[in-house]
Design goal:
This protein is an alpha/beta fold and 265 residues long. The chain contains 10 helices and 8 strands. It has helices spanning 15-25, 44-57, 68-81, 90-100, 116-130, 138-142, 155-163, 199-213, 224-241, 253-264; strands spanning 4-10, 33-38, 60-64, 85-87, 145-149, 169-173, 191-196, 245-247. Helix 5 (116-130) packs antiparallel against helix 7 (155-163). The chain starts with a strand and ends with a helix.
Length: 265
C-alpha cells in the first residue's frame, strides 16, 4: 500500500493538531500513514500550497488556525480541491463565543507560548536524554534530581516525565560489579532518589523484557538469585547516601514523580 499522509497545519507550532492526529492514528493499523507538519503558517499562499499538495497525495488536513482569514481560506481551498480538512480548534472556540459571549484573542501559539518556562522544559528534556542511564557521569553533578536503582525500575521514563516539568534529571543503573562514580555525591541543590521494586514484580518485568528481545528466559538477568543480589547491593548504596527510597512496584510514573517533586519543594 502506498504511503498516506496527514497534513498538520498551524499558525503556531502545530503541537495541538499533531497530538490529535497521533491520537487518531493509534486507533488504526496505521504503519503506512505519516504526519507532515507545517508550523508558523502566516500567508494565504502557504495555505493554498498545503491544500494543493494534500490533493495531489490523497491526504487530509488537521489544522489549528486562529486567524479567521486563514481559517476561512483553508475551508474554501479544501472544498475547491475536495480535500477533507479538520478544524481542531474552530468549533471549540465558536462554542466558547456562543456560550460565554467572549471574543478570542486570535493570537497564534498562546497554548505553547515561547517563554522562560518553555525553554526551561526544553533544556531539561535535552538534559534527561543526554544523561540517561549513566552515559556521562558529569551529568550527575549538574542534575537537580538523580535517580538510582537496578535495571527496569522505571528510571528512564521517570526522568523524562520529570524533565517535562522542567526538572533536570539524570539516572544511574546500580550493578554489584560497577562501583558508583565519584560524581554521585550528595550536594546542595541535588536530590538523590533511590528506586526499588518487589523482587517478584521485577522478575516478571525482566522476563517479559527478554521475550521482547527474543532472548532466552533462562538468562541470569531474569533469575531471582541475580535480582536479589542486585537489590541488596542497591539498598546498601542508597543507605550509604541516606537518600529517600521509593518502592515503584505497581506505582504510576505520575505518582512517583509527585513524591519526588514534594521532596524538592
Amino acid at each position: 500500500m502506498s504511503e498516506q499522509i496527514i497534513y498538520v497545519c498551524s499558525d503556531a507550532v502545530g503541537e495541538t493538531a499533531e497530538a490529535v492526529a497521533k491520537a487518531t492514528l493509534r486507533q488504526f493499523a496505521s504503519d503506512h500513514v505519516k504526519i507532515k507538519r507545517f508550523g508558523h503558517v502566516k500567508t494565504e499562499e502557504e495555505v493554498i500550497q498545503i491544500v494543493a499538495e494534500a490533493a495531489r497525495t490523497g491526504g487530509f488536513i488537521s489544522y489549528t488556525l486562529v486567524q479567521p482569514e486563514l481559517r476561512e481560506l483553508m475551508k474554501e481551498e479544501s472544498f475547491r480541491w475536495g480535500v477533507r480538512a479538520v478544524d481542531v480548534m474552530g468549533p471549540m472556540m465558536q462554542a466558547f463565543v456562543d456560550t460565554f459571549g467572549s471574543s478570542p484573542k486570535r493570537k497564534p501559539g498562546l497554548l505553547h507560548s515561547i517563554d522562560d518556562d518553555y525553554y526551561r522544559r526544553m533544556e531539561a528534556i535535552e538534559f534527561a536524554v543526554k544523561y540517561d542511564d549513566g552515559k556521562d557521569a558529569r551529568g550527575l553533578m549538574q542534575a537537580q534530581v538523580v535517580l538510582i536503582g537496578v535495571s527496569r525500575t522505571s528510571k528512564t521514563p521517570l526522568s523524562i516525565f520529570l524533565s517535562h516539568k522542567g526538572i533536570k534529571t539524570a539516572n544511574l543503573p546500580l550493578m554489584p560489579e560497577v562501583r558508583p562514580p565519584a560524581e554521585l555525591t550528595p550536594a546542595p541543590g541535588r536530590l538523590i532518589v533511590g528506586l526499588t521494586m518487589q523482587p517478584e514484580h521485577l522478575l516478571h518485568i525482566r522476563t517479559e523484557r527478554l521475550k521482547t528481545l527474543g532472548l532466552p528466559e533462562s538468562a541470569q538477568y531474569a533469575s531471582m538469585e541475580r535480582i536479589m543480589e542486585e537489590l541488596a547491593y542497591a539498598s546498601s548504596v542508597m543507605q550509604t547516601f541516606q537518600c529517600p527510597v521509593i518502592d515503584v512496584t505497581n506505582r504510576a510514573i505520575e505518582e512517583t514523580a509527585g513524591l519526588i517533586i514534594e521532596q524538592l519543594s
